[in-house]
Amino acid sequence: MSVSDVKRPMEEYKKRLRERVLSSLDLSRQYDDEDILSLIRDAICTESGPMLSVADRIRTEKEIFDSIRKLDVLQELLEDEDITEIMINGPDNIFVEKAGRIIRSDRHFISPDKLDDIIQQIVAENNQVVNESRPIVDTRLPDGSRVNIVLPPIAVDNSIVSIRRFPKETMTMERLLSYGSLTEEMAEVLKKLVQSGYNIFISGSTGSGKTSLINALSGYIPKDERLITIEDAAELQIRGIPNLVRLESRDATLEGKLAVPIRELLKSALRMRPDRIIVGECRGAEAVEMLMANNTGHAGSMSSGHANSAKDMISRLETMVLMGMDLPLLAIRKQIASGIDIFVHVGRQPDRSRKVEEIAEVIGMKDGEVELRTIYSYKGETGSWEKENEILHTEKLVRHGFSV
To answer: Using an 8 Å Cβ cutoff, are 289 and 267 in contact?
Structure first.
């Protein structure tokens, strides 16, 4: 007998329990959680089914309760703090990331309709809509987890849900050091660079730790400064900055109106008298305003973007600027060279750990291109870091009282 044959009677029993509870609900009255749990327990006592141990009964009660009152099987995964990513590829294929490794969950939704119900429940909490006319939506859960949803026919086989979890504890440099993401010497250098107002751009692939590094670096921002963060979906967990303003972009309605893109938020932020601006992630034309902010006296600003290396990030920024403004390439490169002081590249290693792979200084233009000078680099073959050069432009460090 296969495992599925063993599970099928239990699944059918849970389905009957759920239907029994739902049919007993009086839609004209309000039920609190205890009322629902009482109905579930009554159904377990009266509905014929397999013999349940105490542990199985408690688990069954919770599963039925979650399916009625919360997010069904998704609720259990969200309550597991070790899970950092949830990938739902239809009702029967759920994958999770734990400790940097992707594994297949044994949980599943009872039907495609149930998965679609949960999707509608998630988007409704944020006053958003997802349907065939608007099959792609980015939203978030009450705990701040980022959610991406893609519906058929764009998703060919089934509805797709991807959830990025964020730790409840704010990421700090001490935690990154404990994970072995960089050395204490590198952390000390980054601390001085942030406190001195160097403009820093963090590059890396998806899931490489860009947001975590920005959160950690934000701990070094002087507490008396005014900081404005701008994001597609609010992910940054910045603490200890009293004068903090958090802005989040908004997608257009079904009529194609009321969109508030990151570019507009950046323009507005420049009128809010910020000391520093953090753009959570540059993906397109907003790179124009990001460089403009960096070049107009907002020292110590930070941003991030997807790239394979610090050098590759420069090319990506050039492309993004061209998406928003038709400028000569040389002019764009001059804006990058004057607007960004430091590139920090992070990456995931074969063992699933995340490392700061390079810290590079922008030292100016050479032969019409932005010239980088590597300060620290990670040597994968030895699993260690190497210091290659000293910081060349030390004016800001000296101005803030740091010895060079």
So the answer is: yes
